[in-house]
Amino acid sequence: MEKGLSTNSKIQNQLVAELRRAVGLLESCHSGLKTEVIEACDHIHNPTYRIAVFGPFNYGKSTLLNAILGKKTLPMDLVPTTGAAITVKYGSEPLTCIIHTDGSIQEEAGTGTLKEYAVLDEQRQMRSDVAAVDVYCPHPLLKLGIELVDLPGTDDQQAQNDLVQKQLLSVDLVIQLLDGRKLMTLTERENLRDWLLDRGINNVIFVVNFLNLMETSDRQQVALRLRFLAESFRAQLPDGVSNLYPVDALPALRARLKGDIAAATETGLPALESALQSIGAQLASGLPPEQTLPRLKVVATDTIKALQSQTNNFSTTEPDPTDSRKTEIKTKARTLIQKGFNQSVAKLRDWLTPQNLQAHYRLGLAQSLEAKTTSDWLRQYLQPAWHKRQKSVVEWVHQACDIFECDHPTDLYMGFTISSAAQNIDYTQQADIYLSRFSKEALQAVNEYKQTGDRILNTPITKTTNTPSPAKEAQLNLLKSTIEELTDLIEQI
Fold first, then answer.
1. CA torsion through residues 470, 473, 477, 478, sign
2. What is the pLDDT of residue 463?
3. Spatial distance between the Cα atoms of 237 and 228, rounded to a whole number of angstroms
4. In angstroms, rounded to a whole number, what is the distance separating the alpha carbons of residues 259 and 345?
5. CA–CA separation, 330 vs 390, rounded Å?
6. Which residues make beta-bridge pairs with 246?
7. Other Cβ atoms closer than 10 A to 231
8. Contacts of 172 (CB under 8 A, 6+ apart)
9. What's the per-residue H, E or C state across the chain?
10. Which of 37, 115, 32 is nearest to 75 (CA)?
């Protein structure tokens, strides 16, 4: 187990370092992505644990946080109110800190100033002069190192949606607030997929509000749907912490303001607070890489897409009136392509060794053979891994064909069929036999393709009207190598 954690920590550090380098290659049109990458990398070393309440407007997010804090700290109303991401931190005395977009900081005792700076204006717009809002409170949960984030409601204004999406990438746990009266609407399901799961945010607790406003029979139906939701969604939470809690937010706040412990218990709030306390107790040991790597994987994947887009749009040609100069440049380009092609072939060969294939795929293949789901397993695991690696080899040859103006050869191909095995050997042996055969056949195909590529790369250089610029060619190869490094790292996650 310790070995696994050490490996994940190493991958995490390598990925953070590679992402920081990749940020410098992103063009200005990717400024939003640059910010996300930097924030995701910086968050790895942030000792605090940020919990954000997420959901459409009027679902009771601010009310729930006020109930947890035991007082009306955050603005709440019947119309969409919260107009900024308000971060609640520990402080010995109530204090509000407004960080303005010009860099100035305004501090006010108490939380009354939130009504001026952290709510929407009459046109339902956020204040353009406010960059961030921090509130400090003397609460035991916050003293554990937890920060609570009150996000604007979604589905009201696009600017608020953009702010929420950005903030979600910097939190460790999301409390997805649901309305029991319209449980998991289409919008909620889309938000869960698009805003959370697809972005690597899978540390989520579901809190269901407004059950107190429903008939008993309706509550029972909702309870059945909630059980399905909890079972189908896997959250990375401490042992004993559920990912589903019914909490009637407004009654809970009223009970806390009155100091009525029995009434507060009936609302379900103490169970949620106990879960948050358990999470806070884990902070001393720090967040494991298993909780932080999924988010890094998402921003790394987005970075790869952006770099690939830049690569596709990258122009390496420029007019040169001197034929001798063109020939010289083409010769240098061929040297770079040969180097990249040889490195890609070497990496593919290393991956295709029987020892490597068996170490990475023996167990999964053996299990699929036993379950008779081998075709699905091949399509899901071995085929995609092969296609990614052979694509890197093929792209170098295609680039050479374009530069030397010759026809593209048939792409590197491998079949993935499983033949019947002897009945007297177990599934692990069958897996080893298949992977050894695959290694042999694939290496043979790679060697044949290598000969084809070498032939193309040794094509005599002809005079052309345009030639690649060495500087641009080097920049293009830097983009490609960065993409390759990031891809290799996220494949290890």
1. positive
2. 56
3. 18
4. 70
5. 25
6. 208
7. 10
8. 49, 50, 51, 203, 287, 291
9. CHHHHHHHHHHHHHHHHHHHHHHCCCCHHHHHHHHHHHHHHHHHCCCCEEEEEECECCCCHHHHHHHHHCCCCCCCCCCCCECCCEEEEECCCCEEEEEECCCCEEEEECCCCHHHHCECCCCCCCCCCEEEEEEEECCHHHHCCEEEEECCCECCCHHHHHHHHHHHCCCCEEEEEEEHHHCCCHHHHHHHHHHHHHHCCCCEEEEEECHHHCCHHHHHHHHHHHHHHHHHCCCCCCCCCCCEEECCHHHHHHHHHHCCHHHHHHCCHHHHHHHHHHHHHHHHHCCCHHHHHHHHHHHHHHHHHHHHHHHHCCCCEEECCCHHHHHHHHHHHHHHHHHHHHHHHHHHHHHCCHHHHHHHHHHHHHHHHHHCCHHHHHHHHHHHHHHHHHHHHHHHHHHHHHHHCCCCCCCCCCCCCCCCCCCCCCHHHHHHHHHHHHHHHHHHHHHHHHHHHHHHHCCCCCCCCEEECHHHHHHHHHHHHHHHHHHHHHHCC
10. 115
Q: In degrees to the nearest 10, what's the CA dihedral of 64, 67, 69, 71?
A: 120
- Predicted pLDDT of residue 195: 76
Residue pair 489/14 in contact (Cβ under 8 Å)? The answer is yes
Q: Which residue has better confidence, 345 or 318?
A: 345
Question: pLDDT digit string (tens) for 24-67?
Answer: 888 888 888 888 888 788 777 665 788 999 888 888 888 999 99
Phi, psi of 134 (to 5 degrees): -115, 135
Token digits of residue 228 = 């399905």
pTM: 0.55
Rounded mean pLDDT, 392-396 = 90
CB 450 within 8 A of CB 412: no
Quote the tokens at residue 339.
Answer: 């180097």
Q: Which residue, 3, 18, 1, 93, is CA-closest to 491?
A: 18
Mean per-residue pLDDT over the chain, rounded? 82
Count of residues for the chain? 493
d(CA 227, CA 230): 5
Measuring CA to CA, which residue among 312, 317, 449 is closest to residue 27? 312
**What separation in angstroms does the CA of 452 have from each of 336, 413, 435?**
17, 13, 25
| Contact present, 400 and 330 (Cβ < 8 Å) | no
Which residue is it, tokens 């916050």?
Answer: 142
The Cα–Cα gap between 76 and 69 comes to: 14
**Per-residue pLDDT averaged across 409-438, rounded?**
81
What six digits make up the tokens of 306? 């952006």
For 287, residues 6+ apart whose C-beta sits below 8 A from its C-beta are 49, 172
Residue 106: Cβ within 10 Å count: 12
